[in-house]
Amino acid sequence: MMTASPHSNGSASSNAIRTENVCRHYVMGESTIRAVDGISVDVPSGEFVALLGTSGSGKSSLLNLIAGLDRPTSGAVIVEGKNLAAMSRQALAQHRLRTVGMVFQSFNLIPSMTVIENVELPLRFAEVDRSQRDALAREALDRVGLGRRLQHRPSELSGGEQQRTALARALINKPKLLLADEPTGNLDSRTGTEIMNLIREVNESLGMTVVMVTHERALAGQYAQRMIFLADGKLVDDQPNPASAAASLPGDRA
Amino acid sequence: MKAHDLAELAIRNLRESVLRNSLTTVGISVGVASLVAMLSLGIGLQQMATRRLVKSGLFDTVMVTSRRDLRNFNRNEDGGGPDPAQSPVLDEPARQNIERLPNVVEAYPDLRFITSFTFDDKPHLTMVAGIPSSYKTNDAFDGMQGSFFSSDMAPEIILQKTFAAELLGKTPKPGSEEAPVAELAKPLLGKEISMRYAERVDVPASTSPDTNQNTQNDPADSRDAATYSIQSHELKLKIVGVTDLDPDSMRGAARARVLLPLKLVQSLHVVQPNALRDTTQAASKSPTYSTVSVRVKDPARIQGVEDGVKKMGFNAFSMLDATRSLRRFFAVLDVFLGIFGSLALAVASIGIINTLVMAILERRREIGIMKAIGASDVDVQKLFFAEAGVMGLLGGALGVALGWMIGRLINLGTNVYLRSQDLTPEQIWFVPWWLVGFAILFAIVVSLLSGLYPAARAARLDPVQALRYE
Q1: At A136, which CATH number?
Q2: Digits of tens for pLDDT over chain A (254 positions)?
Q3: Whole-number mean pLDDT of chain A?
Q4: Which residues, at least 6 apart from A125, have a Cβ–Cβ distance to it below 8 Å?
Q5: With helix as H, strand as E and coil as C, how does B247-316 read?
Q6: pTM here?
Q7: Is the pLDDT confidence value at B73 over 80?
Q8: B359 at interface of A, judged by CB pairs closer than 8 A
Q9: Over chain B, what is the mean pLDDT?
Q10: Cα torsion for A92, A95, A96, A99, to the nearest 10°?
Q11: pLDDT average, residue stretch B447-453
């Protein structure tokens, strides 16, 4: 059986993500909501991990902590060797810009911008020269299979096309991690499969670490190498996906 | 983010809610317009006043007298300085020295005398003054009928209108309307008038002929030099102009009603009022003047010239103090007009704050997205600043144009009124280039200040909250 525990093995350098007893508590009036309550996980580089749990289990909150969109109340979140808990707001912005790429359930494209403008927006923040931006954006769009309708606005596109655009945007700065929050939640099953295949391809061909939040066990079982189950902000189960273990992957843990 | 990306995104965002942002921009432009209109009015009024004063010669002229001459313009100075009897004499070499001072355009002697004219066989007694050819540009001659002297030595004469009326026997009764200059000039222009004058002929000719007027010699050195005889002459002059203003109103009671070319007067060697006194006083061998008028290039340089003249040991007097208080008055006026103008801009800045705060609420999700994909606090802040700045720039430019039009309208209205009152139209409003630049810059600065709070608020927006919000 696969016995290697991700908690114990591997140094910080081989881990893309390491959380140490991380907590995120919200104070709502008199009550405290423990969205993330003492989670410690290690994710090796190149792994495709699914975060599973019901609504309110804390899976999205954990993803936001890894993304650097939010700060932990206590504990450490170490991504690519850097502790996000100790970073300045400016450094966190750099982390979101260069280290991670995000896709969301609701796509989160800017409605007033065309497809290509949405995709190259991170390049503006990265101060990439105007002349290079167009080529880079087209390259990223090619990778997600969107070669046409680049001058259309998101509202003129199908859900699948919008999510492809969002994926291209997430990949444009060549991040180490792809974080996906219910990426197929707003898509029909056929389009959802297309998007998931794209994400898997990114994971396999670029060796990009992927963390996907989903409540669909079946989807996770189909694509992820490892499944982490959360409930009430706590880690309840962490298991490799036997289905994907058969598929040989570069850097697969043994 | 790079500046051009920032500008591009800012303009894109402004166009997304074009009506609201246009209204805000119009608000700024109304503010700027009121500021520009107010300040340009202040500047215009100041320029009008300065223009008149400078052209009148009052504010670019220093009057120089000798300390020997107890007839001093400035009483305060009588006490100080060396003994009047030992002070330098205001003679031709002194005049030439004064003319060589920096920023001096010319220094000319003040020559005036009372004499009698014959016109239509009737005698008329009046004050005559010699005026230099530079007076041609004096705006006192703006309302003149006829022309200025054709040359420095031309036997020509310009009449003041009260004297013209006297010649024609049309002296107005008290309370009745004065006849217009044109009406007085018509029968006089081109006519001949004869002037009687007393020439002073020095017995020992001690000076060169070209500077030889008004001569008296130093009795201390030579008693003979003080001796002179007086000969009566008559000179025929052609009337070339009739003016409605006195160009030398500064001299008050000594107003000359008849003007001759200065060089011509100098060549006549007319006995001057100070000639008698000079016979008893120690003076110099060269001709002396009771007063020399010094014209300065620029009213701002007048103090330096005055100081230079005083260093030479003469009394100097100018209307500088009067201009100083005038300038102070206009500075205060400008400040007040500026404050009133700025009030509208202050109201407009509240409009900017309101618009941008609304924009944050509307674009909450968009800000969250931008942060999620890597925009820093500073990027978001700059974006809102840029939007405020663009509105400021557009509002400023539009406002300057609007203010310019308002100013023109005020000017037009005033001139229509002035014309209806039979007064000369005036440019009471002026927009200098620096005001255009200043107004636009001011609009941008005010807009950026207004953007401070919204930009800071947008920058601090929590992306998790913003993205959760649907």
Answers
A1: 3.40.50.300
A2: 444 444 444 444 478 999 999 999 988 888 998 999 999 999 999 999 999 999 889 999 999 999 999 999 999 999 999 999 999 999 999 999 999 999 999 999 999 999 999 999 999 999 999 889 999 999 999 999 888 889 999 999 999 999 999 999 999 999 999 999 999 999 999 999 999 999 999 999 999 999 999 999 999 999 999 999 999 999 999 999 877 654 544 444 43
A3: 88
A4: A93, A97, B1, B370, B373, B374, B375, B376, B379
A5: CCHHHHHHCCCEEEEHHHHHHHCECCCCHHHHHHCCCCCCCECCCEEEEECCHHHHHHHHHHHHHCCEEE
A6: 0.67
A7: no
A8: no
A9: 80
A10: -170
A11: 91
Q: Chain B partners of A28 at a C-beta cutoff of 8 Å?
A: none
Q: Which domain holds residue A109?
A: 45-63+88-245
> Touching check for A174 and chain B: CB below 8 Å?
no
Cα separation, A17 vs A43, in Å, equals 5
Burial (Cβ within 10 Å: 0-12, 13-18, ≥19) of residue A163: buried
Tokens matching residue B93:
């070499």
- Please answer yes or no on whether B370 and A125 come within 8 Å at the CB atom: yes
Number of structural domains chain A divides into: 1
Cα separations in angstroms, B275 against A192, B251, B289: 117, 20, 10
> Is B212 in a helix, a strand, or coil?
coil
**Contact B205/B190 with Cβ under 8 angstroms?**
no
Bridge partners for A49 per DSSP: A211, A226
* Helix%, strand%, coil% for chain B, nearest 5: 55, 15, 30
Task: Tell which residue, B458, B125, B31, B67, has the closest CA to residue B283.
Answer: B67
Q: Under a CB-based contact definition with an 8 Å cutoff, are residues B383 and B11 in contact? A: no
Cβ contact, residue pair A94, B376, below 8 Å: yes
CA–CA dist B413, B390 (Å, integer): 34
Whether residue A94 is contained in a domain is answered as yes
The Cα–Cα gap between A137 and A116 comes to 6
Give how far B383 is from chain A: nearest CA, Å. Answer: 11
A80 domain residue, yes or no: no
8 Å CB contact between B268 and B111 = no
- CA–CA separation, A111 vs B236, rounded Å? 94
Contact residues for A156 (Cβ-Cβ < 8 A; gap 6+): A149
Confidence (pLDDT) at B207: 47
Q: Distance (Å) from the C-alpha of residue B463 to the closest C-alpha of chain A?
A: 6
Q: How far is B22 from chain A (nearest CA, A)?
A: 18
Q: A88: phi > 0 → left, psi -120 to 50 → alpha, else beta; which?
A: beta
Neighbours of B222 (CB within 10 A): 13
Give contacts of B 381-440 with A, CB under 8 A: none
Residue B163 pLDDT level (bands cut at 50, 70, 90): confident
Output the CA torsion B67→B72→B78→B84 (10° steps): 20
A37 occurs within a structural domain? no
Q: How many CB atoms lie within 10 A of CB A30?
A: 5
What are the angstrom distances between the C-alpha of A221 and each of A50, A186, A239, B315? 9, 19, 11, 108
Q: Find the helix packing angle between B320-362 and B364-372, rounded to 10°.
A: 80
Please tell me the predicted confidence (pLDDT) of residue A6: 44
Would you give the DSSP letter of residue B91?
Answer: B
* Contact state of B1 with A121 under an 8 Å Cβ cutoff: no
How many Å lie between the alpha carbon of B2 and the closest alpha carbon of chain A? 6
Q: Residue A82: inside a domain, yes or no?
A: no
Q: How far is CA B421 from the centre of its chain?
A: 25
Partner residue opposite B372 with nearest CB, options A69, A90, A173: A69
Q: What is the ipTM of this complex?
A: 0.89
pLDDT (tens digit per residue) in A13-54: 478 999 999 999 988 888 998 999 999 999 999 999 999 999
Short-list B321, B328, B318, B324, CA closest to B104: B318
